Structures are given as structure tokens and as C-alpha cells.
Amino acid sequence: MNRPAPRRMFAPPSVRALLAQAGAFPLTLMTVWLLARSGVPMSWEGVALIQGGLAALLAWWLGLAVWWRGIELVFPSGVLLARGFDLPPSLFLGLFLLFLLVYWSTFRTQVPYYPSGRDAWDAVAGALPDDRPLAIVDVGSGLGGLVLDLARRRPDCRVDGIELAPLPWCVSRLRAALSGSRVRFLRGDYDTLNFGHYDAVFAYLSPAAMAGLWRKAEREMQPGTILLSYEFDIPGRMPDRRIVTTNSKKILYLWQF
Questions:
Q1: Helix (H, G, I), strand (E, B) or coil at 132
Q2: 201 domain residue, yes or no
Q3: What angle do CA 207, 136, 214 make, to 5 degrees?
Q4: Alpha carbon 11 to its chain's center
Q5: Domain co-membership, 122 together with 76
Q6: Is the residue at 15 inside a domain?
Q7: For the segment 67-108, what is each residue's pLDDT rounded down to a tens digit?
Q8: How far apart are CA 186 and CA 88, in angstroms?
Q9: Helices 145-153 and 166-179: angle between axes, nearest 10 degrees
Q10: Owning domain of residue 46
Q11: Do 203 and 77 have their domain in common?
Q12: pTM across the whole model
């Protein structure tokens, strides 16, 4: 049986964040015990602050980003505050299921839900060659806005979207059905998709995913095709074009193969 290598298992930031909270717990117990023996009064709020502070230190030691350390710091206090509202457990279950359906395997892919918006749609439409029909795919298509917009603007093109999270994928399929659009929304990981079948690949992912995206594009994309990335550059790979969007001033990067 093949087992995941330890480094890969602990690579996702969410796993390391969980380890930081778990590792801080025995340290918190020891700290509270020492303070109690010294006669220092301790409230539950104080215990939560100690737990959060120790977890934030461990998060720093584990190499997590600054915002993860902030989450570690406030998480125990947030749990304590939520308990004070006496909320029904079903509410927490419902919220968990909702976030699961929206974000799905973000802990592994490190690609949260980023809506691109009309500025990005305009920039992509303007960057595409208009002298021939194209096969276009949006990897991580979310609610399907870009795919549906491109299909309206370019009826000569075949436009696909692929999305891993179930709820955004369902919403995009529903939008396509209600509008009568001929676009195709696939559910799955874009790693399973062959970029060689497309003339243009658009991505709005995250910095953590860009190196892997480039390796896949370099391996599969054909001469004359283009890779587009909104907002996130690929380290060490100079884009052929940088397109500054009109209102948001964010950049659409373009690589020509």
C-alpha cells in the first residue's frame, strides 16, 4: 500500500494550523497549572488567550503566513465567545456543511473561492484572438460568470469551465440551464483535464497553485495557445503581456506558447 510522504501530508497550511492548535493545548495546560500553583487567578478568557498565543507562536515556527497566525491567535477566544451565545449545535453543523460545499478541498489545493468580476471578463475577452474560433476553458470556474459571459460575447467559441467545489458547480450548471447557454461545466480537479484540447486556458487561482499550473501548461499546451492568469503571476516566468484592468487596476497576465 502506498502511503503519502510525511512532508506532503503536512504541507497544506490547514493541516499545519490544526497541528499548531493541537500542539499548543498541552503547553496551555502546563502554563495554567504553573500559574495556578503560583496563586495567579485564571479565567476562561485568560486560558483562551494563552492557548491562542501559544498556537500563534507554533504557527510561526511551522512557517505559516501572518494571517494564519492571526487566526490561531483569535480562534480559541472566538470559540469561547460562541459558547456564550448558547447557539444550537445544528447551526454549527449547517455552517460547516455550507463551507464544505463552497470550499471543498481548499485545504489541499490552497485555492479558495475568488470571484473574478466584470473587469477580468472584459480583459480576457479583449486578450483572446478574434480571427478564428477558439476552445477556451476556465479552470476553477466558480459560479460560472466568466464562462457564461465569454459564450455570449464569442458565440463562435467553445467555452468550458471546470470546478471542484460542489455548490459553485451546481450553481453554474443551473445558470447555464436557465439561460439556455451551450457552455459545458465539468466537475473535478483541473489536473485531470488535458490543456492540449484548448486554445486558451484562464485561471484565477492563488499564488500557491501557480508553479503547478505552469508545469501542467508547459507539458500539455500546444504551440500558438495562450495561458491567462488574473492577478497572480508565475514566479520566474516572464509573461508576454500584462493587461491592466480598467477599474480594479489588477493585472491579467498572458503567456504565449
A1: coil
A2: yes
A3: 30
A4: 15
A5: no
A6: yes
A7: 778 888 888 888 788 776 776 666 556 655 555 555 545 444
A8: 36
A9: 30
A10: 6-86
A11: no
A12: 0.65
